[in-house]
Amino acid sequence: MKAFFEGIQYLFVNILFAPLDFLRALELESWFVANTINWIFMIICAAAMVYWILQLKIFEDAGTENQDTTAHSFLK
Question: What is the per-residue DSSP string for 9-58?
Answer without folding.
Answer: HHIIIIIITHHHHHHHHHTTT-HHHHTHHHHHHHHHHHHHHHHHHHHHHH
